[in-house]
Amino acid sequence: MIKLLATDLDGTLLDEQGHINEEDIAALRRARKMGVTVVVATGRMPATIGPFLDRLEVTADEPVVGGHGAVTALRNGDILHTFTIPRETVVEGAAIARTFDAVPAFYTAHDIFMERIAFSPEQDEYWLAGGIPIRYDPDALSHIEEALVKLLVVQPDVAAVPAMLEALRARLGDRAEVVRSHQWFVEVVNQDASKGAAIAWIAKQRGIRRDEVLAIGDAGNDVSMLRWAGYSAAPANAAPEALAAAKWVAPTQPENAVAATLERFVFHPALFDRR
Predict the structure, then answer these.
(1) 273: pLDDT confidence band, cut at 50, 70 and 90?
(2) Is 227 in the same domain as 150?
(3) Report field, pTM of the whole predicted structure over 0.90
(4) Cβ neighbourhood burial of 191 (10 Å; 0-12, 13-18, 19+)
């Protein structure tokens, strides 16, 4: 019996226009009525996705995993668990980003700093901030006193991302978790941070077994939770690494991937098992 659903946001529940299908929302509502805890696990920071959490009807006691697993928090802003990243690692990663003409974004548990605009102020706000003001500062790292939880490297030139990802992994891979989370983004976090580690921590705190956890996600930063969960799914249009890690392939995101996954594993598992 599934007791916890861990679901990615962008590319799984959320499309490129910020739309969430009504069928997926209704399915989450139904799952909660059956006693399933819903945990949104995203590369975005928990404090930046309030409107999406409202839309998904995330409750006050349902944890939210953000920053690729670096931060676990509640809706009221309470931080439950964090993995910080050494400043020297962030400094090195930012230097590599600049050689690719990419824009480093620095995240604390509460604030976002960028050295310059990546897309436009409006697009930066949508993709990176979600209501929290971005602090643009060409010398940002010198002015951040709080511990850092994530370096996000923004590369508007999609063709340059694979080489940049390889360079970041070659330099930082033995000290940090480096993943591609979107066509434009590479994330660098604490080497112990991942969506899988965060979901495992939440499950342990709540006395939920691994075989009572269902995960769904579409990108490289979802692989850890897809592998850890007892049951997992990826939309048919997911990244190859997510499809390889998932135990079941769901319909594409526009075709209500989350609702279909809940139908398969929560609402009518016996019906599918007989097929």
Answers:
(1) low
(2) no
(3) no
(4) middle
